[in-house]
Structure formats: C-alpha cells, structure tokens
C-alpha cells in the first residue's frame, strides 16, 4: 500500500484540528481577556531505506540517504498570552493589568482560579464578583452608601463615603504570575487553573517584581487578530485540500496499477 495515502490522511486530520482552533479564536474575538491558541505540529517517524554516510565503495560514502516520512501529528495547542488591546469604558469596576499577571478568583468549591478578565460586578450583598458571581480575591464588600470607587495602579481598593473627606480603603488587590502561563489549564468562563507545567502562582502587589500595574476604567480585549486568523484559515484550508488531492492522486496511481494488462 502506498505510504502517501496514510501520510496525507494525517495531514487532513491535523488541519481539521487546526481549523477547530482557529474557529474558536474567531468565536472569541470579542471575549474580554481571551488569549488565542495555536496548534504546534511535529513530523512523524521516518523509515530509513538508505543510511546517510553509509559506504558505497572503498573510501566513498553516500552524501545523503533515503528517508521517507510518515506524515504529521499535532503535539500541542498553546495559549499565547500576549497583551490584548485596551478599551476604555469609564466603568469604575472595569480593571486591566498592564503587563504580566492574573486576577485571583474564588470558585464555589473554594479553589482559586485565575483570569485576565477584569470586568467586575457588584452582587446583591455588595461583594465584588465576576460576571458568573465568583468572588474576587480578596473579598471586597462595597458599602451601600458608597458614592465613588477608586482602584489605584498598585491595587488599593477604596471608596468615597458621604460626609468623609478621605477615601475608605476596603482591600488590597494582588495579582498572581506563573513561570509558564502557557501551562495553565483553561476551564472556560475566562478562567485558568494551575498545573504541574505552569508552576506555582507567585502572588504580589501590582507593579512589583514584574507584575503589571492596574488601570481602572478599561477592559482588555482578546488578543485575536482577525486578519491573521483568516490568513491561517486559508492556509489550513489549502493544506487540507492539497492533502485530499494527494489521496486522490495515490488512488489514481493504484487504479492504473490494477488495470495493467500483460
């Protein structure tokens, strides 16, 4: 059986996964804090028919050999944690991180998740929460009579109360950083959890030890570039088409061989 049939089939399967990743990037082009993904491919094992450097005759060797590949396989789908563009909202509970870092979020089971989504809300009890109602760490409760909210670049969360000259500090927001953010596990809802590949979170005050500062009144848009994803989609589509043509060509060659007559 011709190797090209199997090699081309691996190429088609790989491009199917590539299209899946591209389509998810495009679907999340307006998702706050979304980080795009990329598929990494790797060639499969080679069958060596002639070893490079093997002797031809006395004192002579083959300068190159004959090695036949067996296709391709996807080895990783990597998150790209480049900075997305900022959109000004002037909403006091919209916060972005200018640089590295993640906000800390407490899940209902008590675990901590991490996010770049700083579009916060206020719950019925005055707590600062995500759009899904998960508590922001630390747990900050805004008084009902607060008339203004101020979040500094270093993460100090304060409010203005009636008949008070000075702001009342409610808490200190800290951000977490990872030695390998690409190793984080995405769990949906703009959240990530650490894994053995990401390393342990390093928590610090924004603006210190390579942690980005905070900016109030902005949200971070997805780092997806539509034109780039469309180009990637065209390349993937053409690669899929080319591999399908390879299968058709191999099939035609087999048909010719089957129709040979003495």
From TrEMBL:
Q: Which keywords appear in this protein's UniProt record, sorted alphabetically?
A: Bacterial flagellum, Cell projection, Cilium, Flagellum
The terms describing its cellular component in GO are: bacterial-type flagellum basal body, distal rod
Q: Where does this one sit in the cell? A: Bacterial flagellum basal body
> What sequence ranges are listed for the domain Flagellar hook protein FlgE/F/G-like D1?
97-156
Start and end residues of each Flagellar basal body rod protein N-terminal domain: 5-35
Every copy of the Flagellar basal-body/hook protein C-terminal domain together lies at 215-260
- Highest taxon listed in the record's lineage: Bacteria
TM ranges are: none
**In its UniProt record, which GO terms are filed under biological process?**
bacterial-type flagellum-dependent swarming motility
PANTHER family according to UniProt? FLAGELLAR BASAL-BODY ROD PROTEIN FLGG, FLAGELLAR PROTEIN
Family classification = Belongs to the flagella basal body rod proteins family.
* Name by which UniProt lists this protein: Flagellar basal-body rod protein FlgG
Q: What is the lineage of its organism?
A: Bacteria, Candidatus Ozemobacteria, Candidatus Ozemobacterales, Candidatus Ozemobacteraceae, Candidatus Ozemobacter
């Amino acid at each position: 059986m011709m190797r090209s049939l199997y090699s081309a089939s691996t190429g088609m399967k790989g491009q199917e996964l590539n299209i899946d990743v591209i389509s998810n990037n495009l679907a999340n082009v307006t998702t706050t804090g979304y980080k795009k993904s990329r598929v990494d491919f790797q060639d499969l094992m080679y069958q060596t028919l002639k070893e490079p450097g093997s002797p031809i005759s006395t004192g002579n060797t083959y300068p190159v050999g004959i090695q036949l590949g067996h296709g391709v396989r996807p080895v990783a789908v990597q998150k790209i944690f480049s900075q997305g563009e900022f959109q000004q909202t002037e909403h006091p509970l919209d916060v972005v991180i200018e640089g590295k870092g993640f906000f800390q979020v407490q899940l209902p089971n008590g675990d901590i998740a991490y996010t770049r989504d700083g579009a916060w809300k206020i719950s019925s009890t005055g707590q600062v929460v995500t759009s899904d109602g998960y508590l922001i760490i630390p747990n900050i409760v805004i008084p009902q009579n607060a008339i203004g909210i101020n979040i500094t670049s270093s993460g100090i969360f304060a409010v203005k109360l009636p008949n008070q000259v000075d702001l009342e500090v409610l808490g200190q927001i800290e951000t977490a950083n990872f030695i390998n953010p690409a190793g984080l596990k995405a769990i949906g809802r703009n959240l990530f959890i650490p894994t053995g590949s990401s390393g342990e979170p390093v928590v610090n005050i924004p603006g210190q030890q390579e942690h980005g500062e905070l900016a109030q009144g902005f949200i971070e848009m997805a780092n997806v570039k539509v034109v780039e994803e469309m180009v990637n989609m065209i390349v993937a589509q053409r690669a899929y088409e080319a591999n399908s043509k390879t299968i058709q060509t191999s099939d035609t060659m087999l048909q010719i061989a089957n129709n040979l007559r003495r």
